[in-house]
Amino acid sequence: MLFGYARVSTKEQNLARQLVQLKEAGCQVIFEEKVTGANLHRQELQELLSVIKKGDEILVTDLTRISRSSKDLFELVELLKDKNVALRSLKDTWLDMSSNNPYSHFLLTVMAGVNQLERDLTRMRQKEGIELAKAKGLYNGRPKKYTPKHVGMKHALELYHNKENKYTVKEIVEITNVSRSAFYRALKEEGQKEFTK
For a surface tag, which of 12, 42, 90, 158 has the fewest beta carbons within 10 Å of its beta carbon? Predict the structure, then answer.
């Protein structure tokens, strides 16, 4: 079955042009929505993904209608491959998963590689920036969530050190809503070598 998907970003924009093109291309059912394409968690898109079956095809007027980022596009393509569903774009003719088009798979592989390279370069620049900031004494790591003045942590430590305390560590972190690992770190910072309860 041939499904269409049409999207514009705001309620003021018009879907008419996309709907005409998708109908002319033979779409039997068209999912349409007026919402940002920032991610794949869109109501109509998720509805479409829930009804497609093996052998179906999704048609869009251009890829920006279904995905705004290469990361989301690759995620979507992988999901559709797993379901044996094809994706095709009227404008971006290079992407045609409906046939065994080796160029389409090749270009997706190249784009995925470029996307991975971008992520690796970003991580590398981030690491270099941190090293440089450390060398200049400007980097202290992530700010601590639980400072000595944090009410929950303070209460957790008080409960732990109270001689009449009948609570276990598990109960203390549940009562005070602090994480167990942060609580153990705070005890270590106090010089506590062995933990009871």
Answer: 12
Continuous segment of H or E residues that includes residue 87: strand 86-89
Q: Token digits for 131?
A: 């090293």
Distance CA 172, CA 158 (A): 10
98 catalytic residue (yes or no): no
pLDDT tens track for 49-79: 999 999 999 999 988 898 877 778 888 888 8
Q: Which phi and psi (to 5°) does residue 6 adopt?
A: -125, 140
R_g of the chain computed on alpha carbons: 27
Instruction: Provide the residue range defining the domain that includes 15.
Output: 2-96
CATH number at residue 63: 3.40.50.1390
Q: Which of 9, 69, 70, 98 is catalytic?
A: 9
